[in-house]
């Protein structure tokens, strides 16, 4: 299921992923445009307390590894070049964001094969299995 509509592409920061058929096939465009509309509604309420998560281009069932990389409004790719995450790891990222919010209102995440050397707080890396345990 393609998801990353409100993010910008890695090569063209002025073009939303939803506008690039390489990322969003025509049959999914209506759903992707709904994601963009949702983000615009959030942005129209600047005084409200909100965060909008744009999943990567592909969200699919898989293993819960707790390993992901967090970004803002640009489509991220994993080491294998794909923009993907398991639904299980997306859930971990959502809980992490709720428990320890970052300063950005629009975020995205992507699967990460190797543990990061910097990034989230050590207690989150440990909980996510990113400290080598």
Please identify the structural class as seen in this structure: alpha/beta
Oligomerization status of the protein chains: single chain
How big a fraction of the residues is strand?
5-15%
Q: Would you list the SSEs in sequence order as H and E? A: HEEEEHEH
Name the shape in a single word: globular
Distance between the termini: 32 Å
Segments where pLDDT lies below 50 for 5+ residues?
Answer: 125-133
Question: How many helices?
Answer: 3
Number of beta strands: 5
Average the pLDDT over all residues and give the rounded result. Answer: 79
Keywords:
alpha/beta; 3-stranded mixed β-sheet; 3 helices; two-stranded parallel sheet; 133 residues; globular; 14% strand
Your description of this structure?
This protein is of the alpha/beta class and 133 residues long. Helix content is 26%, strand content 14%. It has three helices and five strands; from the N terminus they run H-E-E-E-E-H-E-H. It is globular. Mean pLDDT is 79; it is low at 125-133.
């Amino acid at each position: 299921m393609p998801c990353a509509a409100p993010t910008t592409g890695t090569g063209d920061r002025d073009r939303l992923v939803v506008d690039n058929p390489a990322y969003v096939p025509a049959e999914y465009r209506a759903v992707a445009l709904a994601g963009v509309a949702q983000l615009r509604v959030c942005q129209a309420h600047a005084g409200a307390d909100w965060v909008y998560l744009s999943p990567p281009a592909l969200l699919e069932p898989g293993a819960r590894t707790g390993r992901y990389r967090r970004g803002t409004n640009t489509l991220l790719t994993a080491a294998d070049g794909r923009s993907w995450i398991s639904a299980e790891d997306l859930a971990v990222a959502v809980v992490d964001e709720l428990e320890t919010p970052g300063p950005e209102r629009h975020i995205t995440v992507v699967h990460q094969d190797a543990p990061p050397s910097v990034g989230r707080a050590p207690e989150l890396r440990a909980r996510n299995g990113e400290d080598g345990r």
